[in-house]
Amino acid sequence: MTRPVPDLAQSWCALSTLHDRIEAHIERALQAEHALSAREFSVLTVLDQQPEGEENDHFRMNELADALSLSQSATTRLVNRLEDRGLLSRFLCHTDRRGIYTDVTDEGRRLLAKARPTNDAALSEALAEAERRPVLAPLVEAVRALDARPTPTREPRPADEH
């Protein structure tokens, strides 16, 4: 005889399943079209959304790790890989020589601009597939409701900065 699963645990399992399905779908699409992992896309996206202006507005590596929900070592490996490909650059903080900032290069911005439609299409496809599963449909509805909310937008930074 099977034990009933508590509602909260069942909900968490459904949420985890939805996340895993979406991430796998996006991963396949980004790899196939742009040789970019979903994590690499996330790094580029987070860094591209940094406020413009003073260097204090840039993420330090530990802040980037927090924003990505990754360990500092995993973040450093990702940044190293993207820097080796010419998609990111690092520079020292002028006020604290121990601080290192990371920014998206022009090449990284061009790749990000090409990859965004692929990411968005893969996300839409993954949500449409998940919506057909009764246990995931309410979560998809919640994601779509979040997407429908007005959010402040920021113009992408020009590719000739830094």
Automatic annotation (TrEMBL):
Report which superkingdom the organism of origin falls in.
Bacteria
Please name the Gene3D superfamilies in this protein's record: Winged helix-like DNA-binding domain superfamily/Winged helix DNA-binding domain
Enumerate the Gene Ontology biological process terms. response to stress
Q: In the record, what terms sit under GO molecular function?
A: DNA-binding transcription factor activity
Q: Where is the HTH marR-type domain?
A: 1-148
Q: Which residues form a coiled coil?
A: none
Give a single Pfam family match. Answer: MarR
Q: What PANTHER family does the record point to?
A: MARR FAMILY REGULATORY PROTEIN, TRANSCRIPTIONAL REGULATOR, MARR FAMILY
Q: What is this protein called?
A: MarR family transcriptional regulator
Q: Which organism is it from?
A: Streptomyces radicis
